[in-house]
Amino acid sequence: MMNAPYRTVVCGFGNVADGLGEDRRMRSVFGAASHARILSTHPAFDWRAVVDTSDSARRRAREKWGIEQVVADASTLEDEPEIAVIATPAAARLSLLEQMPSSLRAVLVEKPLGESLSAARAFVEACRERGVLVQVNYWRRAVAEFRSLADGGLNRLVGEPQAIFAVYGNGLRNNGSHLIDLVRMLLGPVVSARALSEPEALPSAATAEDVGLAFALALETGATALVQPLDFRHYREVGLDIWGTRGRVELLQESLVLSHARTADHRGLEGEMEIASDAMRHRPCGLRGALSAMYDNLAAAMAGDAALYSPGGCALDTEAVLDAILKSGREGGARVAPARHAARH
């Protein structure tokens, strides 16, 4: 028997919650590309309310989406939500959670969880104490292609990873966090981080406080990922290039395309091998429905039928790597081991 739709409130009604859904190219690739577009049709969620301090955001929720209950303060909500979609700035999240009634059972929250690792821990711990499930929107974890790669598919394509190169932009805590989470998902735990450049303010960063810097991640497997920042004013990319013992895989165009090359006889030397990078095969990664899949998974976890794709404890491990990179930057490039969070809530 199907559960009744979960009473849902959206907190923070800006670009991620609504605006991105108007981007025609995003819609062509992702399908429903905003929380609003998902919630307006998803049968498992009854979208009843919006919380935002902006008059224009509340008016847009009312006029565009027909949401009757739009408030500036979560403590004034009339309904008792079971699900909160939290897309506010990171600094507001813990206080927002504290305003939510005891009816709350789960949150789907944007990254980062807090302005600092300690704030992120406090948010996850507060949810744990209340028995609230935490799904963090590292949406690549919901993509079937990436889940298959993490479940042995990458090893079948490239063998044992030997060298990893990557780029990101728009800030370490913004797209950098997505890249680090993807590295952890596909390549395993990070045992240490080392800054390779000074943290610098980025003109294109999503927030004024965010920075960009080059860094290296030492993985538990023994491989190292070398990562460089890009200035998104020129072009966008969050890309990953993995060289293994039997092949090479690139995830480029912000994960839209997977390219694969195999080993072959070396064309310039007898008895040696090469990666045939000029004969790469390309295929789309199938990102359509990624955000919908995050919601599907949350509904299944609520019903006790599935584990969360991106639980709070897992996201804390990603944010611990961010914290280690920044600490290394402050300490002149020292190797820093990220804190581990064994709990997966």
Q: How many angstroms does the end-to-end distance come to? A: 26 Å
Summarize model confidence as the mean pLDDT: 94
- Total beta-strand segments: 17
- Contiguous low-pLDDT stretches (5 residues minimum) are none
CA radius of gyration is 21 Å
The helicity comes to 25-40%
What CATH first level of the largest domain would be assigned?
Alpha Beta
Q: Give me the strand/helix succession.
A: EHHEHEEHEHEHEHEEEEEEEEEEHH
Major beta sheet summary: 9 strands, mixed
Based on the coordinates given, report the CATH architecture of the largest domain.
Answer: 2-Layer Sandwich
Features:
345 residues; alpha/beta; Dihydrodipicolinate Reductase, domain 2; six-stranded parallel beta sheet; 9 helices
